[in-house]
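Reading a protein record of the kind used here takes little practice once its layout is understood. An example of such a record is reproduced below.
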Amino acid sequence: TLKTAEGNDITEDYRAFHLDEKNRLWVRAGLRENGRLHLFDIQNHQDTVLGSMDGQRNYYLKDSDSEEEFIVSTMFGPDNGMEITRVTNGDYSETKTYFRSDTTALPELNIYNVCADNLSNIYFGHQNGFGQFSVITGGYRSIDFYKDQALGNVWSIASLDENYLLVGSQFLGLLLYDKTSESFIADYKSDENDPLSLSSNNIREIYVDDDQCVWVSIWGKGLDYACLGKNKFELVYDDRLGERPLDITSMTTDSDGRIWATLGSEGLAVFNSDKSLYKKSNPLKILGFDENAYLQHIYFDRLERIWLIVRDRKRRISYLFHQGLGT
């Protein structure tokens, strides 16, 4: 585990969100006043604490215009808003807060997921819909309805390519956003009469693999998979996954193109690119955890090592593990 300045283990919430060119994993460990940004060298295991950092979700942004580096943070517990921290020469230079009532004229919003091209185009999901914000001009717009229907919570946004975004809504399924026209141009919904449609309209997480196939996590109902060119969704199912609905908290891909999904207390499922199940395992048992633990997040570094975040519900602490693929 990572250490505090006093040498004690950090057992609060972790989020790994960027691997830089120097093979340093950027990890936010702890929350609120205990939150810190760690730069962890995955080769020599040297840990450098860069400074204070809050937010359950953090995103690395390299501005395409200025080449400057920023960290965008959201989900601050009882507090709303978005924090953008400029990183200069490996150190903080300033942090600005937006969408919090006591700091700007912008509306107060509880912001979840962020997908940004540059400081002029920051796309984000919030409690009422889908937003777009420019730090440069201060301009803000939000799309809360599509075809006269409310989007609800937007938990996840993923880039399909340089022109399109996939937006996961609470009520309207998966929406396709065109950056050029700045509008939604298609929607993919659940239809009880169509077995190839989404399992539910309540989308939680989205992941787009190298073949531009889309993996959609639906809270309490499992995982859907589709190549959008086929314009259909198929439920990912295998007898080895069991009969209970799956709570999938994160997904990633390895160098062989396989999709890895964390199944909470059920461990890991690994899928081939054709959506067939490659294997299922539960590293929680190997690591000695009981039924109070669940897998929260998975990440691969450039050396193809697995990084796992394990959450202990009873003790309310998190752990960070890593190991090689062959072990």
User: Anything to note?
Assistant: The first strand starts at residue 14 and ends at 19. The two ends are 19 Å apart (CA to CA). The mean pLDDT is 87.
